[in-house]
Amino acid sequence: MDKATKREHVVKEILDTEEKYVTEMAILTECFVVPLQTYLKELGSSNKSDEIPIETLLDQHNMLFSNASQLHSFNEVFLKDMQSSFAVNKGDNIGHIFAHASAFFKMYSTYTSNYMNADKILKDWLVNR
User: Fold this and answer.
1) How does pLDDT run across 12-26, given as a tens digit for each residue?
2) What CATH number is associated with residue 70?
3) How far apart are CA 69 and CA 33, in angstroms?
4) Could you tell me if 55 and 43 are in contact, meaning their C-beta atoms sit under 8 angstroms apart?
5) Which of 6, 4, 5, 10 is nearest to 82 (CA)?
6) What per-residue confidence (pLDDT) applies to 54?
7) Tally of domains within the chain
């Protein structure tokens, strides 16, 4: 296998992985983040939350999901950029796409630095609910 073919396979693997990731982030956002946030806001406006203050529940929601919706939006654009590159030149300029997006990857620091707190909240919810 020549060098160009190997590179094309690597780029295709990156693209396939990103497609799966964006699909999973869409499920997380559309099936969990948004519906739960909507429910909590409705719960708060109806004053039906007697056990735990609604502010606490919303804080826990924000801690649990952090900036997942923003990450999903970013990765959708990032995926489209990579797909366009692959369609035009088999991803020969994929390094430029990563370099252009590098500032946006910093959004992951919020998500990852929050992981331990989110894990604790999830475990508490599973044990106490």
Assistant:
1) 999 999 999 999 999
2) 1.20.900.10
3) 8
4) no
5) 10
6) 86
7) 1
